[in-house]
C-alpha cells in the first residue's frame, strides 16, 4: 500500500510516518514498481509507536523499547509480550511525569475556582484566599485614617497578593483563619508603630525598633495557632530559599532603612523561634522568650 494509505489507516499524517522513518522508529519498506510498499507490519509498527507516544514516552524511550523487544520469529515485527526492565523504568518515569502534570492542573483548577469565588463575592480578581482577605478588610476598617498608615497596609496586602501569585501561599489548606478583636487591635498597633518608625528621632530609633520587634515576636508566641497556620499556608518557609524570596520581596516593597532593618530583625527572630521548635506541639505554654518580654506588656 502507499504511504498515504498507511497514514489513513493509522490516523496520522504522511509527514509523521516519514519522521518515524528518520528517527528509526519504523523500518523503511521495500520499493516495488517505483514506490515504497507498506504492509500490515508497517501499519502495526506505526500504531504501536503512536500508542506509546500518547502514553507519554519520549521518542528516544520508544526507540530503546522497540530495540529491546524480542522479534517475532515469523515476520520480524515486535510482539506485544512482556516489557523488558528498561521499558518498565521509562514507563514509571512517564507515570511520574503524568502525576506531576495532574498536580499542576489541580492547582490551576483551584486558582480558577478561587478567582470565580473572589469575583462573585465582590472582592474582584484577587489571588488572596477569602479568609486572609477578610482579615485585611478588618484591619482596613480599624486602622486610623492616616495616609502613611493606609499605605503600609496596602503594601502588606500587595505583598500577600504577590506571595499567592508566586505560589508560596497555599490557600487550599486554610480551613479556618480567624483573629479575635484583641489580636486585630494589636496588629493595628504594630502597623501604626511600624509606619511611624520613620519619624522617630535618631537617638530613639534603635530602642524603638528593638522594642517593636520584641513585641511582635512575643505576640507570635501568644498566638501560636496563627503562626502554626502560617507555616501550613507557606509550607516551604523552613527552607532558606523561600525565606530569601520573601525577604527580597519585602526589601523591594519597603525602601526606608529603618523599616527594612525592623523587618530583618523581626524575620530573623521569627525564624530563630521556628527553627528551635517554639511553635511545635509539646513546647512550654510560657516560652522563655515570652517570659522575658511579658513583664512590660500586659496583653
UniProtKB/TrEMBL annotation:
<dbReference type="InterPro" id="IPR009061">
    <property type="entry name" value="DNA-bd_dom_put_sf"/>
</dbReference>
<feature type="domain" description="HTH merR-type">
    <location>
        <begin position="1"/>
        <end position="68"/>
    </location>
</feature>
<dbReference type="GO" id="GO:0003677">
    <property type="term" value="F:DNA binding"/>
</dbReference>
<dbReference type="GO" id="GO:0003700">
    <property type="term" value="F:DNA-binding transcription factor activity"/>
</dbReference>
<dbReference type="Pfam" id="PF13411">
    <property type="entry name" value="MerR_1"/>
</dbReference>
<keyword id="KW-0238">DNA-binding</keyword>
<dbReference type="InterPro" id="IPR000551">
    <property type="entry name" value="MerR-type_HTH_dom"/>
</dbReference>
<protein>
    <submittedName>
        <fullName>MerR family transcriptional regulator</fullName>
    </submittedName>
</protein>
<dbReference type="InterPro" id="IPR047057">
    <property type="entry name" value="MerR_fam"/>
</dbReference>
